[in-house]
């Protein structure tokens, strides 16, 4: 993947997740960050920090992004969520508008 | 009559559709009942050729005569005694030119006449035969006709009148009956071809005219005064719209075809003054459907016809009658603004500010052409204009002046609704609610949604309630607290820090909220300092004292919902007014049976900032209440819910429209006494409406359509549930005007066709929800052919039940 097609999401612990831009755009918040006019640091560097989101949750979120692209292209599978993660995942999803 | 008809019908099998329509018209005319009204009525019916199918007419012809018969009889009934007897008189002298399309050899005119005089039945078949024949000939003439006639009603009328087939033309003007009569009266000794042409022309014209006439009548109901339209008949404004609507519907394709032929014919005919049409219309509206109708028709013909055809003694009578009618309708003529040529002249008409026909049956007619009446005129003319235009274009555009074709490449349309992560998480949480240990840090919206999910699946329990109540919540929302007991409630609230609560919703709390339990919630005065919204619906054990205690603990209350609290009386409202009078914005007292509307009126008037009032189901709400209340507080009012207050009439709506310019939402469910006037008032007065909920109201298609044209631009939510007369006009207006519509309920609107739905859904791009319960007339043509990817169509077999309840976002507290 070329650098222009990717975005880096950084969790609270500093883990960096490099994902496809299209996948990141599933989240309205990230989409706004990356596409809004004006020079956000996010836009320039191509990376977004989430100090409130833990690594496991952010990983699950990235998985959701890809699952969502897959779903949109026709392949409808089930997205399993571990119950322990669900509450935090929900709050993160609420924040990310996804 | 039936037998007669059936005899006729098969013979027309060979005819073109046009002929068939004529035939059907003929048939209908042939089978008029003894009263002229009936005869007249039938033509209108029959002139509306088979419904949408536009297919083989013969099949569709049959049912029509019956329908028209009904209409006719209805019309005749209303016609105030238009005596059928009158009919035969003038007829005797006129040869019965085969008005109908007669196929095969046309018996000579003379024969026909005799046949006619012998009896309607006898003549009818001949007539029909002749008519059929004529239609055939007419068809060949179509090309020769110019487009002139097609364009303007006037010209068509003119030509029709002047055509040699005056009889026929006349007959058509009068909607079959007239037509027949006229043909009888006038001597149709002309050449067969001529007559045939005329006949067909007449047929066409007749149907065309009847169409126009119908429309016109719709338009000018008040003007006419004598609203009886033959066929459409003496239907009062209320019924007329439906009749017209139906006719239009049926006539869509059929009439279009008929018109084409007719129009063509007409263009060849010498020009007839526009008045002809007018007169025809007027004639149609004449009260005494039978004789006068005929007489007028004939007289009209005669007077306008360039060549007076066969004047008979009856023509004198006719002229006399005509003069009377003309006198009566002179004013209408004076104000009539003929439409320009061209198709849908809505714009032109609007600009023209024609003396818009006041709405029918308007008890207090508008003395100025307000937006509603202009819109009504537009809509009424729309149909006629379309029909004029139709002759030039294809059939299928007409009536169902709805041009909508389903898309073929549907598979590219289906945008999958990907479940959001939030949704998925909520579902998992709801399934495992008991395992949740804390809701700390969870914002209000997910809490609310979770609570909703649990209540819907009956999994709500004390555990989760404690979670909700625990900590220092800002919102506690429980949609269904029927499972909650008093002990649980008091126990949970003990641990609750109520300092920050802004929204408290304990709906269906009858079990847990008697008077003495209030103290467990509101431990001290002002223990809910931040509470602005409280909803305790269904607190059936709560009395005025309990409520007073509750209110005194919430000094900054802005919205209160005490619906279905059956023990509360007017003194609760007084307490409210005393304690939070100037703060209160929203008051919901649905179904509070012990609250008398007039008694609370003084207290209500003290709620100066009230924006939302909901008094659904309180039977003591009367016109006086509404008028007085609105006069005081109307300026601030944003939402008014008056559903099930069945005593309300148009007077209330009139006042509301006058005094509440900022009204955003109005609920008029089950107010059956309202008429189209109410819609008119709303259209003129409440132009900012975003939400209109109607259900089981008796508004007409044109009324609703005109409302949409005038004030429908900001509508976001519209319910026409069970407003049965809604049909193509409304669909067109919706598609044209209501671009912001998000939720539309057209359940039980069985006059809406696939095309109508398709047009609406494709035009209203914001539409997210379409409810179509009970609309079994919808087929896959619409369901698979519409190109709106986001709309959710609920109510048909394939949608899971109750799914529609979840489609749109729930209301936030403090809406405005």
From TrEMBL, chain A:
The source organism is Trapa incisa
Q: Which SUPFAM superfamilies match?
A: POZ domain
Give a yes or no for keyword Thylakoid in this entry. no
Q: Which Gene3D superfamilies match?
A: Potassium Channel Kv1.1, Chain A (3.30.710.10)
Gene Ontology biological process terms from the UniProt entry: jasmonic acid mediated signaling pathway; ubiquitin-dependent protein catabolic process
The name under which this protein is listed is: Elongin-C
Write out the similarity annotation: Belongs to the SKP1 family.
Q: What is the lineage of its organism?
A: Eukaryota, Viridiplantae, Streptophyta, Embryophyta, Tracheophyta
Q: In which pathway does it act?
A: Protein modification; protein ubiquitination
**The entry's keywords:** Nucleus
Q: Where in the cell is it found?
A: Nucleus
From TrEMBL, chain B:
Record protein name field: F-box/LRR-repeat protein 15-like leucin rich repeat domain-containing protein
According to the record, the residues making up region (Disordered) are 1-108, 333-373
Q: Which Gene Ontology cellular-component terms appear in the entry?
A: SCF ubiquitin ligase complex
Domain named F-box/LRR-repeat protein 15-like leucin rich repeat: which ranges? 643-797
Q: Name one GO biological process term.
A: SCF-dependent proteasomal ubiquitin-dependent protein catabolic process
Residues making up the signal peptide according to the UniProt record: none
- Superkingdom field: Eukaryota
* SMART domains assigned: LRR_CC
Q: Record's InterPro entries?
A: FBXL15_LRR, Leu-rich_rpt_Cys-con_subtyp, LRR_dom_sf
């Amino acid at each position: 993947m070329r650098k222009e097609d990717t975005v880096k999401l950084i969790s609270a612990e500093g883990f960096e997740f490099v994902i496809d831009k299209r996948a990141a755009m599933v989240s309205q918040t990230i989409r706004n960050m990356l596409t809004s006019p004006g020079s956000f640091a996010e836009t320039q560097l191509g990376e977004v920090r989430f100090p409130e989101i833990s690594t496991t949750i952010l990983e699950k979120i990235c998985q959701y992004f890809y699952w969502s692209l897959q779903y949109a292209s026709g392949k409808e599978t089930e997205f399993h969520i571990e119950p322990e993660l669900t509450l935090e995942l929900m709050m993160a999803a609420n924040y990310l508008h996804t | 009559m039936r037998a007669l008809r059936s005899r006729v019908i098969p013979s027309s099998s060979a005819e073109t559709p046009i002929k068939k329509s004529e035939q059907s018209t003929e048939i209908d005319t042939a089978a008029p009942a003894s009263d002229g009204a009936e005869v007249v009525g039938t033509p209108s019916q029959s002139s509306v050729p088979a419904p949408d199918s536009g297919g083989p007419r013969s099949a569709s012809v049959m049912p029509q005569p019956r329908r028209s018969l009904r209409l006719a009889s209805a019309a005749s009934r209303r016609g105030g005694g238009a005596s059928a007897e009158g009919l035969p008189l003038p007829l005797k002298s006129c040869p019965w030119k085969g008005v109908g399309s007669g196929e095969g050899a046309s018996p000579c005119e003379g024969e026909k006449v005799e046949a006619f005089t012998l009896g309607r039945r006898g003549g009818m078949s001949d007539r029909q035969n002749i008519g059929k024949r004529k239609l055939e000939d007419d068809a060949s003439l179509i090309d020769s006709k110019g487009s002139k006639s097609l364009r303007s009603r006037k010209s068509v009328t003119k030509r029709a009148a002047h055509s040699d087939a005056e009889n026929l033309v006349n007959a058509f003007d009068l909607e079959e009956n007239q037509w027949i009569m006229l043909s009888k009266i006038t001597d149709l000794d002309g050449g067969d071809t001529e007559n045939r042409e005329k006949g067909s022309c007449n047929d066409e014209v007749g149907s065309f005219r009847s169409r126009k006439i119908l429309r016109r009548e719709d338009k000018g109901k008040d003007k006419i005064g004598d609203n009886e339209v033959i066929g459409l008949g003496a239907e009062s404004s209320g019924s007329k719209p439906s009749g017209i609507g139906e006719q239009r519907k049926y006539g869509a394709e059929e009439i279009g075809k008929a018109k084409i032929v007719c129009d063509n014919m007409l263009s060849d005919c010498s020009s007839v003054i526009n008045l002809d049409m007018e007169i025809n219309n007027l004639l149609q509206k004449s009260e005494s459907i039978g004789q006068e109708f005929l007489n007028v028709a004939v007289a009209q013909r005669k007077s306008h016809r360039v060549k007076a055809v066969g004047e008979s003694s009856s023509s004198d009578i006719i002229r006399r009658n005509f003069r009377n009618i003309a006198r009566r309708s002179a004013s209408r003529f004076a104000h009539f603004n003929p439409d320009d040529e061209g198709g849908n002249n809505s714009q032109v008409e609007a600009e023209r500010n024609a003396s818009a026909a006041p709405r029918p049956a308007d008890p207090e007619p508008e003395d100025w052409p307000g937006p509603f009446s202009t819109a009504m005129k537009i809509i009424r003319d729309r149909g006629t204009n379309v029909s004029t235009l139709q002759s030039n274009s294809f059939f299928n555009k007409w009536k169902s002046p709805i041009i909508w074709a389903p898309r073929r490449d549907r598979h590219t349309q289906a945008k999958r609704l990907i479940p959001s992560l939030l949704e998925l998480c909520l579902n998992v949480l709801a399934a495992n609610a008991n395992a949740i240990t804390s809701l700390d840090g969870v914002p209000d919206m997910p809490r609310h949604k979770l609570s909703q999910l649990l209540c819907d699946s009956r999994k709500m329990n004390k555990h989760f309630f404690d979670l909700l109540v625990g900590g220092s919540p800002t919102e506690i929302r429980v949609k269904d607290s029927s499972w909650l007991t008093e002990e649980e409630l008091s126990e949970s609230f003990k641990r609750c820090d109520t300092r920050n609560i802004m929204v408290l919703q304990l709906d269906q709390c009858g079990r847990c909220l008697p008077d003495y339990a209030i103290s467990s919630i509101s431990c001290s005065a002002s223990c809910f300092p931040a509470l602005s919204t409280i909803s305790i619906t269904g607190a059936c054990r709560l009395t005025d004292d309990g409520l007073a205690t509750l209110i005194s603990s919430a000094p900054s209350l802005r919205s209160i919902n005490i619906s279905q609290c059956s023990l509360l009386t007017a003194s609760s409202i007084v307490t409210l007014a005393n304690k939070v009078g100037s703060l209160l914005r929203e008051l919901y007292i649905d179904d509070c049976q012990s609250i008398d509307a007039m008694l609370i009126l003084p207290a209500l008037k003290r709620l100066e900032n009230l924006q939302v009032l909901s008094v659904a189901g309180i039977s003591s709400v009367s016109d006086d209440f509404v008028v007085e209340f609105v006069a005081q507080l109307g300026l601030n009012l944003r939402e008014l819910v008056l559903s099930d207050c069945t005593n309300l009439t148009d007077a209330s709506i009139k006042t509301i429209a006058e005094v509440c310019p900022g009204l955003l939402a109005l609920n008029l469910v089950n107010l059956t006494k309202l008429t189209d006037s109410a819609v008119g008032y709303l259209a003129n007065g409440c132009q900012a409406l975003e939400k209109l909920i109607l259900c089981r109201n008796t508004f007409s298609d044109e009324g609703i359509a005109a409302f949409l044209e005038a004030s429908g631009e900001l509508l976001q939510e519209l319910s026409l549930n069970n407003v049965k007369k809604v049909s193509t006009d409304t669909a067109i207006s919706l598609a044209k005007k209501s671009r912001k519509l998000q939720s539309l309920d057209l359940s039980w609107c069985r006059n809406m066709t696939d095309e109508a739905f398709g047009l609406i859904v494709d035009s209203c791009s914001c539409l997210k929800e379409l409810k179509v319960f009970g609309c079994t007339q919808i087929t896959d043509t619409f369901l698979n052919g519409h190109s709106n990817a986001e709309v959710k169509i609920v109510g048909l077999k394939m949608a899971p039940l109750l799914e529609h309840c979840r489609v749109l976002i729930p209301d936030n507290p403090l809406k405005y």
